[in-house]
Give the backbone structure.
Amino acid sequence: MNEPSRATRALAIISLIVAVLAAFALCFAYWLTSSTQVLGGLLALALFAAGAGLTLWGRGYMQHEIVEGEREPLASSEEEWNELARDIQTGADTIGRRRFLVGALCAFAGALGIAGISFLRSLVPHVPTKVLWHTPWKHGVRLVKLDGSPIKADELPVDSFAVVFPEGHIDNLSGATNLVRVKEDLLDLPPEQKSWAVKGIVAYSRICTHAGCPVAQYEDSKHVFSCPCHQSVFNVLNGAVPIGGPATRPLPQLPLGVDSAGYLIATSDFKSPVGPGFWSIK
Ligand code: FES
């Protein structure tokens, strides 16, 4: 039987130790981070290191030379019996060393099993965190353009389109909003949303309810928004209900008002969460 070199054995042991450590790290990482890159990287490292360790270990004991010989009489000589006894003894020594291999494999499988059980938690619906329900919009917050300038309701031409943000929160993408002015009599909003428009001006979240891309295009001849990612189309006139593409939920509408200086303001936050669906919002 072949004996692996010291270097091969050391590499195999190091690989198996790395596999066990990576599997344990995976258990902890699941609870500490939601980064799929970290979780996937640790899982890949654990599996790769285990595979490398087993391969090195196995190759170390394999016979590498080709042995040829004359067919000999079937009866074994005394020398052959002695050689067999020595081989069996060598095997017994090797089995002792294999305890480490078996132990390392058990530790690896155990850690990977615990990580797998942790992952089952992901199948349980979570209560969405507050951040999904709230944006910086609230009563009295002015609508401003990217340069920070507020917008007077009377200065917005019919059929115009603008991207607006809550004043003081231009860098907060959850508040990004599309603002459109149409002829007032064209609007056909749901009854509870009629008072959210001002003089034909309506505002809807800019984040697509399909997968979160910016709803960046407005076609004023048809009064529709379209999302460039997967071509969802939303009807601006009736509450941004989806009329094409994969989105199933309307873009949330921002209730609008006008302050004493004539500038457009929000009268509250969006009434439904912005962005793609999640566990309790389809
Ligand atoms: S993200 Fe808008 S259609 Fe998919």
In short: Residues 6-62+79-123 form one domain. The chain has two domains: 6-62+79-123, 130-266. The radius of gyration is 34 Å.
